[in-house]
Design goal:
Elements lengths: L6 E12 L2 E7 L14 E6 L7 E11 L2 E7 L6 H8 L5 E5 L13 E6 L4 H10 L6 E7 L14 E7 L9 H8 L7 E8 H14 L7 E7 L5 H14 L3
Parallel strand pairs: 7-8, 7-10, 8-9, 10-11
Antiparallel strand pairs: 1-2, 1-6, 2-5, 3-4, 3-6, 4-5
Organism: Marinomonas ushuaiensis DSM 15871
GO molecular function: oxidoreductase activity
Pfam families: FAD_binding_9, SIP
C-alpha cells in the first residue's frame, strides 16, 4: 500500500501542555487521508523555504481522533523553524503534512520493558506506555527540562516511572546513562526502546550493547536530534554513525 501524498492540514487549536511542550491540533477536510491507528507514527511537517526546497521536520502523532491529530512540540531555547512556527500558529493556519511513517513501538516478546528518552521522545514513549499490557513490568526513564514538564501518563502498574530533570538538554550526554546505571536490572530478557539527543543515544547504545548484552532484536534506539544541528545536518550524522555502528 503506497504512502499517502502530503496534504494540507488546518490548525484547530493549540495548548501549552507544560512550560516547554506545546500541542498543536490539526484537522480539516484532508485529515481523512491519514489512516487510522497512527499514534506514535511520524509525520513530516513541510515548511516553505523561499531560497531553496521546502524544509521537512519530523514529528510524532501523539493522539489521533477521527477528525484530528495532535502534534507535541518541545520548545528548545534555540528554536528552529518548526518550534518557531508552532509558537506563532493560530487557528485556521495551514501546513503541508507528509506521511505517516511507521509506528515506533517497543518489542513485546520479553520478560520486562525499558523505555528511555528525552522530551522529544515523550510523545512516542507516552503512546508506548499506554498500549502496554496491564501486567507489564519494567521502567520508563524520561528526561524533562523542569519539574513542571512532568506529565501525567497512563501506564501499567508494574512499570516504574523515573523523571530526570535536565535544564540544558543535550549538554549532558550522561544524564540518562547515569539513570540506567542506577536501575535495579530485572531478571530475564529486557526489551528496550530509547530515543534522545545524538550524543546521549551513543552513550546509551554502548551501555546496552556492551555492558548489558542486549541483542538487536530486543533494542530500538535512535537519536531524534543533535545539539547544534538542524534536522538535515542531523540526518547526515545519523547516516555516518550507522555506517560505523557494527553490532
Amino acid at each position: 500500500m503506497s504512502r499517502p501524498q502530503p496534504r494540507e492540514l488546518i490548525v484547530i487549536r493549540k495548548e501549552q501542555i507544560s512550560p516547554n511542550m506545546l500541542r498543536i491540533t490539526f484537522g480539516g477536510e484532508n485529515i481523512t487521508t491519514i489512516p487510522d491507528n497512527q499514534e506514535s507514527g511520524y509525520v513530516k511537517l513541510i515548511f516553505p523555504n523561499e531560497d531553496a526546497k521546502p524544509l521537512l521536520r519530523t514529528y510524532t502523532i501523539r493522539h489521533q481522533r477521527s477528525d484530528e491529530i495532535d502534534i507535541d512540540f518541545m520548545l528548545h531555547e534555540d528554536s528552529g523553524i518548526a518550534c518557531t512556527w508552532a509558537k506563532q500558529a493560530q487557528p485556521n493556519d495551514f501546513l503541508l503534512v507528509g506521511g505517516p511513517g511507521p509506528k515506533k513501538m517497543i518489542e513485546t516478546s520479553s520478560d520486562w520493558k525499558l523505555l528511555v528518552g528525552d522530551m522529544t521522545a515523550l510523545p512516542a514513549i507516552s503512546v508506548n506506555l499506554a498500549e502496554l499490557p496491564n501486567d507489564t513490568q519494567g521502567y520508563a526513564v524520561i528526561e524533562v527540562i523542569s519539574k513542571a514538564d512532568i506529565q501525567d501518563l497512563k501506564y501499567p502498574r508494574g512499570m516504574t516511572l523515573k523523571w530526570v530533570i535536565n535544564p540544558h538538554p543535550g549538554q549532558n550526554s550522561k544524564a540518562l546513562l547515569d539513570q540506567m546505571k542506577s536501575l535495579d536490572w530485572l531478571d530475564g530478557q529486557a526489551s528496550i526502546w530509547a530515543a534522545c539527543e545524538f550524543s546521549s543515544m551513543k552513550a546509551l547504545r554502548d551501555f546496552f550493547k556492551k555492558e548489558k548484552n542486549i541483542s538487536k532484536e530486543h533494542l530500538y534506539i535512535s537519536s531524534y536530534w543533535k545539539l547544534g544541528s538542524n534536522e538535515d545536518q542531523h540526518k547526515v550524522e545519523k547516516r555516518n554513525d550507522a555506517e560505523l555502528d557494527v553490532i
